[in-house]
């Protein structure tokens, strides 16, 4: 009984002890609720209740309503369309040939650098710049760039390599949104439309470099690897041929020499490697090839095949049909109408060397490209009247028979079981 009495006497004390904190907490809660309403912080409550109500109504409905949440996903997007970056170069008297090649290659999705070297007349170079500036389509898209400060380019000399690297640097500065760099000359011409090429390249891994090459130097070891040459184009304003100096040098042991075609298709990543050179190899080899005969046929080949990062990306093909005499001479044969069947049968997208005889090119325009009246090659992007006077959707491709031929070539050189066996051997 004493315990009960003691507890009874404590209850009023405890109630008084909790009364103050309870009153204070209640006051704070009321203030917070009023403040929240004034600031709109509780405006989400109606939406919560409405969402709960909607969910409750769906859960009480028939089971098949759940089909709305398991609709088929959209079909996967096709492979992205690549963007190509071209260099088209020429020399004295090549203005019209270069212009024709540029038009046959044109696609608004691509990038182009055109160059007439310092041997060409100033009037030719000014005319080229004027044509590009005054062409309605080129001006509207802005993807054709003229090297107005012409370079001196000596055949078989390192100035051809420096000119190529110059074009690469311009393309990298203009845009990094391209996938392959392709170097051509005014003596080249396409055997497939750009829609054909872009369609086929869409299915290729973006790291493939097309460089025709070999380490079997043969006679080139004595006649190109060992002689020391000087290219006057490096320091003279007038074009002169390369000349030899003595004594000869030994073949290198710090790296392995490779040789091959001067025409190639290089990935943007490899071009960046050559131009920026985060490894010193591209610079070292550029200095070595300064005194090398026909350095355009060895520089890029030796760089890529001595770079572990890129050696497994090489496709041993230059994407060209080229006809040589037997035994081979210094220059390839000039192609004629009789060579067209073999050129088509090669499945290559480009051919060289073409002379100034327009009959052969007219035949290619009519039979392979669908090009008429000196205009652009028709493609999915072409709209307007006359055709290709306006730009439609550059991503709309209309591949034709050329895409089928090019696909066969890729199956042979890039997707075959022997692909790795032909790399840098």
From TrEMBL:
Protein name (record): Beta-glucuronosyltransferase GlcAT14B-like
InterPro entries in the cross-refs: GLCAT14A/B/C, Glyco_trans_14
Any one GO molecular function term: glucuronosyltransferase activity
Membrane topology type: Single-pass type II membrane protein
Keywords, sorted A to Z: Glycoprotein, Glycosyltransferase, Membrane, Transferase, Transmembrane, Transmembrane helix
Location in the cell: Membrane
Lineage: Eukaryota, Viridiplantae, Streptophyta, Embryophyta, Tracheophyta
Organism: Phoenix dactylifera (Date palm)
Highest taxon, organism lineage: Eukaryota
Residue spans crossing the bilayer: 21-45
